[in-house]
Amino acid sequence: MISSIMLTVGALWAFAYRLGWSPFGYAPIIVLLTAVHFHYAGFALSIIAQTAIPDNQWGNQMTIALAAGVAWVAAGILITGFGGPVWLETGGVTALSAMGVITGGLLLQSSSRPKSFAVKFLLVTAGASLIAGMSLAFLYGWRHYYPISQLSIPWMYAVHGTLNSIGFAVPALISANILPGSSGKTSVQNSARKNKSASNNHN
Fold first, then answer.
1. Which of 60, 3, 48 is nearest to 171 (CA)?
2. φ/ψ of residue 98, rounded to 5
3. Which residues make Cβ contacts (< 8 Å) with residue 199, sequence separation at least 6?
4. pLDDT tens digits, one per residue of 172-182
5. Rounded Cα–Cα distance for residues 60 and 72 (Å)
6. Fewer C-beta neighbours within 10 Å, C or N terminus of the chain?
């Protein structure tokens, strides 16, 4: 459910970019990057967090926390852009980066379980890339207090964006789809089944 919301919001921002709309007066590049962030930091990261955490309840809680972190960052950027306190954006980026680093560490830890070298390689690549990418996001989020001239928007979407997309999302999703779950289905399929079951229980 949460990952679907993240994907929908990302699609709406991508739609706005393609139509040349500028929600809240954002520059086109910011509209595009917002769409990208909801796809990767929102959708992909929440899906992978579900598969990387063995405990189902903790996995669900992490997914909710990640979604809240993405929303917090988006709200912080919007409020800061209208002259609000910068600590809102910095706090959101710090929280989301920390959860991303934790997920990356769990991916590295999970690489010891599968016997296949290919899966191990994919998990290590995804975990290391996520840790590096979210560490850069943390540094960029603190630019209002400790500016680093090299961390410009073009540099961030070139390096941070590549780490999170090609380095993290692609190998993580591939590994999740070929890593068998306990019932013979892939771990991503099991994650979807658990989410559906949790939703039915709430209803």
1. 48
2. -60, -45
3. 1
4. 989 887 765 43
5. 18
6. C
Q: Identify the burial level of 181 via C-beta atoms within 10 angstroms of its C-beta, where 0-12 means exposed, 13-18 middle and 19 or more buried.
A: middle
Determine the Cα–Cα distance for residues 22 and 192; give it in Å rounded to an integer: 34
What is the CB neighbour count within 10 angstroms for residue 150?
A: 9
Position 184 scores a pLDDT of: 34
Cα separation, 9 vs 11, whole angstroms: 5
How far is the CA of 167 from the CAs of 2, 13, 24, 40, 69, in angstroms?
A: 23, 23, 31, 12, 21
Shortest CA distance to 109 belongs to which of 137, 95, 136, 130? Answer: 130
Each residue's pLDDT tens digit, 13-23: 999 999 999 88
**Angle at the Cα of 153 from the Cα atoms of 151 and 159, rounded to 5 degrees:** 70
Maximum C-alpha span of the chain: 53
- Cβ-based burial of 120 (10 A; exposed 0-12, middle 13-18, buried ≥19): middle
Classified as helix, coil or strand, 186 is strand
Structure tokens at 176: 């999740």
Q: Residue 88 is encoded by which pair of tokens? A: 């809102």
pTM for the full model? 0.80
